[in-house]
Amino acid sequence: MDAEKFAKCPGISIDYAVMEHTKDARVVPLDAGWNDIGSWASLWDVCDKDDNGNSLTGDIIAEDTRDSYIMAENKLVTTVGISDLIIVDTKDALLVAHKDRSEDVKNIVDQLKAQARPEAIIHREVYRPWGKYDSIGFGDRDQVKRITVNPGAKLSIQMHHHRAEHWIVVKGSARVTKGEDTFMVHENESTFIPIGTIHALENPGVIPLEMIEVQSGSYLGEDDIVRFEDKYGRV
Length: 235
Fold this sequence. Notes:
Blueprint: H1 3-7, H2 14-19, H3 40-46, E1 55-57, E2 60-66, E3 69-72, E4 77-83, E5 85-89, E6 94-98, H4 105-114, E7 125-128, E8 131-138, E9 142-149, E10 157-159, E11 163-171, E12 174-178, E13 181-185, E14 190-193, E15 199-202, E16 209-217, E17 226-229
Parallel strand pairs: 1-3, 2-4, 3-5
Antiparallel strand pairs: 5-6, 7-8, 8-9, 9-16, 10-17, 11-14, 11-16, 12-13, 12-15
């Protein structure tokens, strides 16, 4: 399907968009335990539950809590005296909703888009062909990322107009290109990439490379990347 045409399709289910309007449909019976899991409540339906009817994932203490779906991604979540709630705590946001209203989360998404909030399109943890990064802290002129580079992977040869970067290796070893120099940076070592310096990062090892990147500058957006060479075809 053409990507541009697909992007213009309204966000409604195939039931409403196609099946209710066609006279050419054919159906056959299927007994496969099907559930399209179209809401948090339907996810609760199919999940394993404790004796109080709760589906709990993550670090959770649930006191006098019943018939709820609770997911804690990166910190402790505690509840007291609740029932029939959806509580989803991720790195990006916290959702609290009554189970009967869980499908209305789409209204929140519409509000995020209308307000042009970055949460509508950007996650704190972002996956790339070479691995991933997690934006763990930021200010007006600084940002801190935890970067994981897969074994054998390499970031593009690139440059930034508005930010400098300080790389600290916490696990594994990095092969760093900075200007005309290429060198290794090992655990508990660091290097500094000044603004405007052409650079690249590679993991030549057999275990994931984990780094802390501290960015500083007048503009820290992801579009401040000038790529000169990229093994994943993103130039």
